TrEMBL record:
<comment type="similarity">
    <text>Belongs to the globin family.</text>
</comment>
<dbReference type="Pfam" id="PF00042">
    <property type="entry name" value="Globin"/>
</dbReference>
<dbReference type="GO" id="GO:0071949">
    <property type="term" value="F:FAD binding"/>
</dbReference>
<keyword id="KW-0349">Heme</keyword>
<dbReference type="GO" id="GO:0005344">
    <property type="term" value="F:oxygen carrier activity"/>
</dbReference>
<feature type="domain" description="Globin">
    <location>
        <begin position="1"/>
        <end position="133"/>
    </location>
</feature>
<keyword id="KW-0408">Iron</keyword>
<keyword id="KW-0813">Transport</keyword>
<dbReference type="GO" id="GO:0046872">
    <property type="term" value="F:metal ion binding"/>
</dbReference>
<dbReference type="GO" id="GO:0019825">
    <property type="term" value="F:oxygen binding"/>
</dbReference>
<dbReference type="GO" id="GO:0020037">
    <property type="term" value="F:heme binding"/>
</dbReference>
<dbReference type="InterPro" id="IPR012292">
    <property type="entry name" value="Globin/Proto"/>
</dbReference>
<dbReference type="InterPro" id="IPR000971">
    <property type="entry name" value="Globin"/>
</dbReference>
<protein>
    <submittedName>
        <fullName>Hemoglobin-like flavoprotein</fullName>
    </submittedName>
</protein>
<dbReference type="InterPro" id="IPR009050">
    <property type="entry name" value="Globin-like_sf"/>
</dbReference>
<dbReference type="GO" id="GO:0046210">
    <property type="term" value="P:nitric oxide catabolic process"/>
</dbReference>
<dbReference type="GO" id="GO:0008941">
    <property type="term" value="F:nitric oxide dioxygenase NAD(P)H activity"/>
</dbReference>
Length: 137
């Protein structure tokens, strides 16, 4: 599975005007479908929603800047490990991210867009998990 970065950018442009509604939907979806992860988050997650939105924007902005993107993801992986995130949490997060993007992209969401986002999330999660594992050793 490969990612078409132009599809990532164009689909994010469709989602972007919805702002932090996107991250509110994401967390609602994540907690409804995976209630066991809720304790990993603060009771009020407004600030976390803003951080997630900023991280998504930075991710899309740096898709072709591999060094910056890798550093960002490694830092996120180490931080998330400190919050108690485990490798088995990442598939749930990925499923909620894809569901959220699909919801807000509407007609712009195609099988190719989903394949691209799924591939990108695979890189995101594997990079974050590897960094968390390395920090734990």
């Amino acid at each position: 599975m490969t990612a078409d970065l132009s599809l990532i950018r164009s689909s994010f442009k469709v989602v972007e005007p919805h702002g932090t509604q996107v991250t509110a939907y994401f967390y609602d979806h994540l907690f409804a479908n995976n209630p066991g992860v809720r304790p990993l988050f603060a009771p009020h997650i407004d600030e976390q929603r803003d951080r997630l939105w900023a991280a998504l924007g930075a991710l899309v902005a740096n898709l072709e800047n591999t060094d910056t993107l890798t550093d960002m993801l490694q830092n996120l992986g180490r931080r998330h490990a400190g919050y108690g995130a485990l490798p088995e949490h990442y598939p749930a997060v990925g499923a909620s991210l894809i569901a959220t993007l699909r919801h807000y992209a509407g007609d712009a969401w195609t099988p190719a867009v989903e394949e691209s986002w799924t591939a990108v999330y695979g890189v995101i999660s594997s990079t974050m998990i590897a960094a968390a594992d390395a920090a734990a050793k």
